[in-house]
Structures are given as structure tokens and as C-alpha cells.
Protein: Secreted RxLR effector protein 161-like
Amino acid sequence: MKDLGPLAYFLGPEVHTNPSGIFLNQHKYTQDLITLAGLQDTSSVDTPLEVNTKYRRKEGDLLSDPTMYRQIVGSLNYLTITRLDISFAIQQVSQFMQAPRHLHLAVVCRIIRYLRGSPSRGLFFFPTGTSLRLVAYSDVDWAGCPNTRQSIKGWCMFLGDSLISRKSKKQDRVSKSSTESEYSAMSATCSKILWLRGLLAELGCVQSNPTPLHADNTSVIQIAANPIFHEHTKHIEVDCHSIQEVLDTRIISLPHVSTDLRITDVFTKAMT
Structure:
């Protein structure tokens, strides 16, 4: 074995360490991606997506050669390792990989222009004095996909002040209500919480208190706290039982979070 000194670069992410913590970004990777797209001389934009715009699968003309589209979107997906702010945007353009159109390529170019304005942005881990308590957030944009009416779920988890896990994804099934979609997202988040608590315990960071899973849907919280199921919840009883189990065993708690304070919006919708 050979000592190469402090880690500075590993498979794309750049590692910057100082007494305050560890900072990860993909500055060079971002610059190379901007050059690949041929947008190094374009102006930057403030957001990765236009607000209140829905992208449809069959809108506009097909690209004659989708190779570049697929290459750039694949590279952008890798960039989300340190750029959580583009997670929802990449989720949106990734669904058109099979038959991308000129309109979809324009959206990808906008994402690149957004990155051009902040190529050095990244993630800061374990600042001095931070706690090691696991905290989770979950949210859903009900029926948010205009092509399938599947809901778009997003969740993220922090260890202290450090973001260690996040997801932006369409749900597998169409939900008939916002409560159903919220429950599905919370159930998936609970599975991740269980896995992370086990991993942290193996690393000597035992979570002795329940992990707070913040949600803004009061109906979901009330159903979770009430073991009596009703006809309108029968079709989601599996998710209900799984959440109630971790709630009753004090693996999680369900604090309510105001809609104005939802940090998971960045994973479920275009932000201003």
C-alpha cells in the first residue's frame, strides 16, 4: 500500500477538508459537462426548471439522434451526488430517455445553464459541534406527473446538519388521494430510516431516540396515530401497518411541519 496523502479527488467528487468539516463538490466535472454541451459561452439562469411548467412525453418533434441527450442526462444524474438542487429536474428529464424530443433537450440545456452560474456548489459535512442525530423529511406532489398521473415523492435525511441521503422519484402506482400518496412515500422513507439506523449502530453511532420523520399532511399523521382502519384506508393498509409498527416501537416519531417550512419541496417540484 502507498500513502497518497489527504484525499482530494475520487471518481468525480472533489474533497476539501478544513478544521470546520468536509466539503464535497464536482467543480471540474461540472465544467467538463458544460463544455460537452457546448454551453460554455451562454448566460446562466437562476433556476434549473421553469416554475409551473409540465413536460409531456409526446410534445414536440423527436430528436434525430438521441445519443447526446442520453449522455448529458446520464452525466447530470451522476452530478446529483453533490447537487441535490437539481434532483427533481433530473428526475423530470430522465423519464424521456427512450424517445427524447427537442423540447426535452431545451430543458436539459436550461439545467446546464443553471449549473454554469454555480459550478462550485456542493455539500458540507459534519461542521464543528454538530450533533449526530438522524432526522428525516418526506413529501409528495400528488399526481404530479402529467403523463401518468403518478405522484412524485421526495425524501431526505440528515445526520445532524449534514445531508446523508435523499431521493426524488415517481411512485410505482397511481394514488387515488393525496393521503395515499403521502403514506406510500412515508413507508418508503421508513424503510430507509430502518436501514440507516442499523448502519449507524454498526458504526457506533446508536440512535437511542426515535428518528423524527417530518410530514405536513395532518390526515396521514392522524391515521398513523389511530390503529382503527376505515374503508377508505383499506387499500393502503400494508403501508399503514408498516408505519404504525415503527411508530409504536419508537423507531420514528411524526412531528408536523408547516407547509412553508418543507425542505423536501426541492425534490418534488420546480422551485423559484
